[in-house]
Amino acid sequence: MTVKKESIDYFNIFIGLCLSGNPLFTSSGYFEVLLILFSIYLTAYYLKGVYFSINSFLLISICYSCLFFIQIFSFGTLNAVTYIGFIVKLYIGYVLFTSIKQFDTKFISVVRFLVVISIPFFLLNLAAPNLKFIIPSFSSFIYDIEQASIHIGIYNFMLDSSRNAGMFWEPGAFAGYIALALTFLFINKKSGKSYITKNLVLFSIGIITTMSTTGYIALTILIVFYFYLRNDIGVKRRALYVVLLPFLIFFIYTSFNKYDFLEEKIKQQYIQALDREDNWRLNRFGTLIMDWEYIKNRPLTGWGFHQSTRYQLNPSDAEIASGAGNGMSDFIAKTGIPSFFLFLFLVYKGARKKFTLTKLESITVIAIILVLLQGEGFLNFPVFLGLFFTPFLK
Q1: Cα angle for residues 52, 56, 59 (degrees, 5° grid)
Q2: What is the model's pTM?
């Protein structure tokens, strides 16, 4: 593979990530147009690769098309744009995962670039928090009414904190993509120890600067997972894993009690949701409870992607849930429990087939993905939808 082709692969992954959470792309009003244009470009560029595993995409897209048909018949409305939008995002994820050789290692490199770029901006914002207000930004193109942050394209300065969001809409989103890169890093058994160590240190710094609760939990699990996968001690790996698990639980517990932003945030959100206090739906526990009402009413086929059906039980939920939520329960509420189990099954099969992991290791990968989905709605975007095609990675 030529250097030029590899560079284009990196560029395409970068654009895929931009379409998976960079507000300059996703909140610009041209998001749908950009998705279609990028999908056409990918098809033209990776023409042979697209057809190599096309059966996998056709099978999954047919499954979802049948689901959408049932939803249309059930609700009596045709919201074609939202259905087509999902298929296009699914297609972009498919092309990236199945047409780019060694996608996992190139994804790690792109995320590493984003972390390296973000650190100077994070430190600058930490040292001079008022400086961001005089930096030229694209915020006027992103926010129609109320400006939520100062976005300069490659970095997103949060108005209410110094947390590191990278180029994404929220620090938790950046932490999620870094954690996904770490997952790929650890499960690729061809990775050398020096390569892993350097990336682990950098990615850990990246997640720490996000100050994301979900990111911290995922990082802790990932580090224990790494020791399980890579230990050179004369103890059986399964036994070591069992020994380390209590320490993992203890570390998470003490972290919650030591760091206010972890302990207070979770306690406050839980109590607020439990007591149905004002704006209780605005936190992840609240949206989980809210989504459960939808899930138990339509557990098999869900409520669809369009707001008119997704929040049909209580239309005001649409505005309340905007920008907040639980990525797992939201996806289940939209597409049903069988759909989400299909996603988890394919991630599991990919871990077993592509990365030759054991059953326990593959289940751990599933657990990491589930933790990440508790924080953000990643399945609304191409990169995480690409995990459907993990068994067909090149």
Answers
A1: 135
A2: 0.88
- Contact present, 174 and 116 (Cβ < 8 Å): no
User: CA distances (Å), 251 to each of 186, 210, 270, in order?
Assistant: 21, 19, 20
Helix (H) or strand (E) holding 94: helix 80-99
Q: How far apart are CA 320 and CA 328, in angstroms?
A: 17
Question: Could you say which DSSP state residue 276 is in?
Answer: T
What is residue 201's three-state secondary structure?
helix
Calpha distance 38→20 (Å, rounded): 12
Give the tokens for residue 121: 């901006």
Cα separation, 288 vs 162, in Å, equals 27
pLDDT averaged per 10 residues, the chain (length 394): 80 97 86 94 85 84 93 85 93 95 96 97 87 71 62 87 92 96 92 88 94 90 84 56 59 53 51 49 67 90 89 73 74 95 96 92 95 92 96 86
